[in-house]
Amino acid sequence: QFLQVRKRREDVAKHRRRMMELRQRLLEEQARTEQRLHTAHEALASLHTRRNHLDRWLQCARRTHPANDLLHIWHHEQFGTISGFKLGRSTKTVQVDREEMNAALGQAALALHLAQDLMDYTPAKYIVRPLGSQSRLIRVGDSRTELCLFLDDRFTLSLFGRSNFTKALVAFLGCLKEAVDFVENQDPTLQAPYVIQEDKIGEFSVAASNDEEWTRAMKCMLTNIKWILTWVAKYTSL
Q1: What is the pLDDT of residues 145-192, one digit of tens each?
Q2: Distance between CA atoms of 16 and 28, rounded to whole angstroms?
Q3: Exposed, middle or buried, 170 (CB in 10 Å: 0-12/13-18/19+)?
């Protein structure tokens, strides 16, 4: 009987040791599980942070439009500028040569052409053909009729009102009015900075022989183009 009691005590002791070992293994496994869970939570938090960052980047990218960077419209004193080129006639303090004016007009043509494509409407009278410093306007339905949106060596101020260049400016202003009308029809709450009527934008004529008036007309024209590009950047995508 003594031996039986002793054996039972030994069995109990063995069972207790096994239970202790099992408990220790369970505690160790629990610790490892908690560590893995903690690591997973950290990874999940990192993913959430990265996702939020990417969401903000995506929203920023959606608000960014290459036209605003490539065709930056601003001003320099009384001159409107586009891509750094001044558009207007020289003053006593600021010189604007023919090459710079043609470059600015080429950039303006590119801006309006890009806007027309992105807004996806068909021009009624003329199609803008941006060709750098020698951009042109082609009559719709008659590709042989074109107007040169640039100054050449034959141009003189005495011919300004009846030159091909002036006709091109008036036609270009008409194309700009079509784009303005399109935007205002899309959202009647919007209104362009300057009203366009025939050869006038705001109070100034693009056919004016007066240097100051013509320069102001060009500045108003660029302002309306900038307004259109802002709308295009917000509501369209490349």
Answers
A1: 999 999 876 655 444 544 788 999 999 999 999 999 999 999 999 999
A2: 18
A3: middle
Burial of 114: CB neighbours in 10 Å, binned 0-12, 13-18, 19+ = buried
- Read off the tokens for 78: 């009384």
| Residue ending a domain, choose from 63, 88, 116 | 63
- Residues 84 and 149 both lie in one domain: yes
Separation of alpha carbons 177 and 54, rounded Å: 39
Residue-number span of the structural domain to which 20 is assigned: 1-63
pTM for the predicted model, two decimal places: 0.72
Distances (CA, A) of 99 to 53, 95, 109, 134, 204: 45, 11, 15, 10, 23
- Assign residue 83 a region (left: φ > 0; alpha: ψ between -120 and 50; beta: otherwise): left
